[in-house]
Amino acid sequence: MARITHGIACSHIPALGVASDFDKWEDPYWKPIQQGFAPTQKWEAENLPDVVILVYNDHASAFDMKIIPTFAIGCGESYKPADEGWGPREVPDVEGHPDLAWHIAQSLILDEFDMTIINEMDVDHGLTVPLSMVFGKPAKWPVKVIPLAVNVVTYPPPSGNRCWALGEAIARAVESFPEDLNVQVWGTGGMSHQLQGPRAGLINAEWDNMFLDKLSGDTQELRCIPHIEYLRETGSEGIEMVMWLIMRGALGKETRELLRFYHVPASNTAVGHIVLEPVNGDVPPSATVEGAATQEQII
Amino acid sequence: MSDKNPCENAGGPIDIHAYLGEFDDIPGTRVYTAQRARQGYHLNQFAMSLMKAENRERWKADERAYLDEWPMTEEQKQGVLARDYNRLLDLGGNIYFLAKVFSTDGLSFLQAVSTMTGMKLEDYQAMMIAGGRSPEGQRSIKEHR
Ligand SMILES: [Fe+2]
Questions:
Q1: pLDDT of residue A295
Q2: CB contact under 8 A, A294 and B114
Q3: How far is Cα B111 from Cα B122, in angstroms, rounded to an integer?
Q4: Which residues, 6 or more positions from A185, have their beta carbon under 8 angstroms from its beta carbon?
Q5: Contact, A156 vs A107, CB < 8 A?
Q6: Which of A9, A120, A198, A247 is most solvent-facing, going by the fewest CB within 10 Å?
Q7: How far is it, in rounded angstroms, from Cα A10 to Cα A13?
């Protein structure tokens, strides 16, 4: 039986990919970030899963304005790094896990999450930067990856609550996969940042750390944060943090924090990173009302 | 069976007008709403076309001729030629699409984003290194917070 062993959240700032690709980690600007991720790289090598379900958003790379799927799952054999306007990153191709991916896609749809299925696409920095941060520069990525793309570009993106519930549904789907597999769920993007307009450069370390704090334990408060709060408090691109809630939802009732790193800045953005372990991985039997937590339970 | 959804306003219909209305209350920010997505459709699709190396070559050879292949407004074309990103946001541009334009120019996100703030690149970069722009006073126009 497949099982979710851990969750990781990680910013996917393009500049981190540049730092990795051009070996800039010894530069004083980048060194603290390299040091911040070093414990995770070591930990991940000792806790290597078979598959990572990698929640990210495409930044006008595989998807343009023609088609905007809210939730899409990659069921392909492999994915190439996208050319985002300066040539593709020189990182390995990403190997998929079509058996598990199709199992999850089918399970989610039967569980009333109406997924878009992707068989072919290129993957941009949203997906490849977290791989670089956690695995460094191997000749081949040491895990298989199931891309799970979320629209956080065109409003409205899905609610935090819906993301959390999708995570729970992913946990149910993984649990019913017959093969013996260790699976991690990664949520990527964030933390506070704004890349547009006169307010660009906004960073809210206090809010970001509140968010990191509440990812562990049994609180479900984060799922109830409305979009407007992300926009006001964390900048227009901070909304990417709803993707972390898919990861958190998939870890079940209670989690504990194993590793955490927070640093400002990388380029325009606050770098946030956390490794979580399920303490009680139970998820409700369905996303319908009888399965959801009560107001009392979340407070 | 009672409604046990943990979030007060989740799972039911929300007031879409109130939801969208709040976006205009954020200082210095254009949220990429459906309205902007419609207005900027061809502008963003033009920018997207620069993902292909052969299109980048044609674009660099003659920007105006390349723009004229797209059903964009003259204002949008002028905004692109001037690399006036705030103007382009107002005309329906989205930053991830516009990124294809400044990437083709060889600008990083930091360099391009700083042009929208009215700050010099050095000053903007120094602000980021010092911890970024504070959210104080930047959350709400109406509430001055
Ligand atoms: Fe992103």
A1: 47
A2: no
A3: 9
A4: A4, A7, A8, A52, A53, A55, A167, A170, A246, A247, A250, A251
A5: no
A6: A120
A7: 9
Q: Does A205 touch chain B (CB under 8 A)?
A: yes
CB contact under 8 A, B51 and A85: yes
Helix crossing, B95-104 with B41-49: angle to 10°? 40
Closest in B2, B95, B129 to A195, CB measured: B95
As a whole number of angstroms, the distance between CA A234 and CA A158 comes to: 17
Q: What is the number of alpha carbons within 13 Å of residue A196 lying toward its C-beta?
A: 24
Mean per-residue pLDDT of chain A: 95
Contacts of B3 in chain A (CB under 8 A): 289
Task: Respond yes or no: is residue A12 known to be catalytic.
Answer: no
If you compute the radius of gyration of chain B from its CA atoms, what whole number of angstroms results?
Answer: 19
Let me know: does A179 contact A102? Beta carbons within 8 Å.
no
Query: Is A201–B7 a contact, with Cβ atoms under 8 angstroms apart?
Result: no
Q: If you measure CA to CA, which chain A residue comes closest to B16? A: A156
**By CB neighbour count within 10 A (0-12 exposed, 13-18 middle, 19+ buried), where does B70 fall?**
middle
**Which pair of tokens denotes residue B132?**
């970024």
Interchain proximity A207–B135, CB inside 8 Å: yes
Shortest CA distance from A59: residue in chain B = B96
Q: Edge-to-edge strand order for the sheet containing A122-123?
A: A94-95, A78-81, A122-123
Q: Give residue for tokens 């709403």.
A: B33
Radius of gyration of chain A (CA): 18
At A135-179, the pLDDT tens digits run: 999 999 999 999 999 999 999 999 999 999 999 999 999 999 999
For A185, A242, B143, the CA distances from B112, given in Å and listed in that order, are 33, 26, 30
Nearest residue of A to residue B92, measured between CA atoms: A154
How far, in Å, from the CA of B3 to the mean position of ligand 1? 34
Q: Residue A257's beta-bridge partner residues?
A: A276
B11 contacts in chain A (CB < 8 Å): 161, 289
A11 vs B128: CA distance, rounded Å: 16
A93-97, A155-159, A273-277, A287-291, range with the lowest pLDDT: A287-291
Q: Is B9 on the interface with A (CB under 8 A)?
A: yes
Closest CA to B97 of A117, A69, A18, A196: A196
Residue A91 amino acid letter? V
Indicate the pLDDT class of residue A85, thresholds 50, 70 and 90. Answer: confident
Contact B31/A60, CB-based, under 8 Å?
no
Token pair belonging to A4 = 């979710």
